C-alpha cells in the first residue's frame, strides 16, 4: 500500500503584507515547506511500515524535502497558482491523490497557514479526516491516530483510506545532512498537471488588516492610583 506525505503546498503568511488600502503584496512567489511538514513525513513513514511513502508537493522550489527524509519518490503538481484559494488547492491535491494506485493514507500538515485545506481534501476524496494529530500507527486495515484532545491526547481508530492532519509540537530536531539532500535530489520526481476542475470555486471578497483596539495608558505618577485604575479597567472588561 502507498502512503502519501503532502509537503510544501501553502504560502507562508509571514511573506504577506496587507496595505491600509487592502492591497496584498507577497515577498515570495511560491509555497515553502511548512512548520508541520517534517512531522508529516515522519508520521507517514510510521504508517507505511513495509509499504511505500510518496511525497507530494506543488512544483517549484525544493521538491526533495520528503525524499531527504525517507520518501521513495515525489510527485510535483504543476500549473496551480501559488495564491490559489483553499478549494482549488484541495481540489488539485485530491485529483493527484486519485491518480495514484493503492493509496490508503494521506498525511498533511494541520496548517495554520491554510487551515481549511486538510478538511476540504478529505471531503473531496470522501475519506474520514483526523485533525490535530500527533502520530499514527496501523492496526490491521485500520489506523489508530493519536490526536490532541483538551489538555491531553486521545487515540482514535479510523478505517483507511483516511486523511491525517499532523500538527507538529516542536521544530525538527535532526535535519537531513547535505549528503542525504544530494542523494534525495537523484530520486524520481514525477511532474503532473494540476487540476481543480469540477469543484466549487471561492472568490476573495477583499482583504483588510485586523482591527486593533487603542492602547490605554495609565499615569504612573501615583502608583496606587494607577493600580486602582488598572484593576477597575480589567473588571470592566470581565478579566477579573
Automatic annotation (TrEMBL):
Annotated Gene3D superfamilies: HUPs (3.40.50.620)
Span of the signal peptide: none
Pfam families attached to this UniProt entry: ETF (PF01012)
An example molecular function term from Gene Ontology annotations: electron transfer activity
Annotated Electron transfer flavoprotein alpha/beta-subunit N-terminal domain residues: 21-201
Assembly and binders: Heterodimer of an alpha and a beta subunit.
Its biological purpose: The electron transfer flavoprotein serves as a specific electron acceptor for other dehydrogenases. It transfers the electrons to the main respiratory chain via ETF-ubiquinone oxidoreductase (ETF dehydrogenase).
Name recorded for this polypeptide: Electron transfer flavoprotein subunit alpha
Species annotation: Slackia isoflavoniconvertens
Phylogenetic placement of the source organism: Bacteria, Bacillati, Actinomycetota, Coriobacteriia, Eggerthellales
